[in-house]
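# nightly structure sweep
# worker-07 picked up a monomer target from the shared queue
# config: single-sequence mode, recycle default, output format = structure tokens
# input follows
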Amino acid sequence: MHKSGSSSALGPDGLDLTQAFFKSIMNAAPSSPTKRHNKISVVGAGNVGMAIAQTILTQDLTDELALVDAVPEKLRGEMLDLQHAAAFLPRTKIQASIDYAVTTGSDLCIVTAGARQINGESRLNLLQRNVTLFQKIIPPLVRYSPDTILLIVSNPVDVLTHVAWKLSGFPSNRVIGSGTNLDSSRFRFLIADHLDVNAQDVQAFIVGEHGDSSVALWSSISVGGVPVLSFLEKQQIAYEKEMLENIHKEVVQSAYEVISLKGYTSWAIGYSVANLARSILRDQRRVHPVSVLAKGFYGIDGGEVFISLPAQLGRGGVLGVTNVHLTEEESQRLRDSAKTILEVQNQLAI
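# output follows
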């Protein structure tokens, strides 16, 4: 597929109009070679990939955006559709190709591509097909952008982040899974809705697997700086543990509900991944619950497993894991979640 980007060349002879339109001022120096130029590549032009791309563009997070997909016609259509919005967006060079060379020099590579489940297919067989797909995706990304950070969004995200790490040969801090960043946003929304406050004033994490064995860290939830559970206990306000469990179940089920209603999820994961991209590329050093190499944290020592933990993100990728105090029950559930992922992971041929 022919890739396309912005160009100042017009006419049959490729006349460059830049010099005709603009005349240099006297004693001008060339642009500084240290000027920072960001490039993001998104692999997979499906609903999730395009929601991420659109959100990245509207939030002005990159100077250059490259799209890669296996279906050239749809890919070109998506690229043109975004390019035609140029008058309404910050200036960004947008390119697309089935050739991974288009991703050359990327600061951040976001992988959303994944195989679709065939009717009657087991989850393990689907996962193995995704591993095979990643064997075609990760090596060329690494070859064209050896200093990039990999951000994996494809599901099951924890296992596939581990697969990407193994295939890339990168240090673990440069391979991150989107993990429970979105789950935690849903969690904060539900708590905020119960308390009638702004979700941005709620500090709450879902950790562990991005899936059924995820763990809600109730003990560390705060609203406006006030620890919720300890406040209720000091005020002798009764609450039922079953109510807390129901909120967590609602978080786990919320994606399934969206899928059952509209067929897929897209906008929330688009905002979630753009949020991570901002923290990484702009060195925000914010704490996000993302899938990281968890061995050695919170008693997880059974093997090399990626699960979501509160981690500080910056230009170097994962800068560190936050030492959040967990209750013994939360710690055990987190270890059980890691074990669940390892059991699946150990059945794969990588």
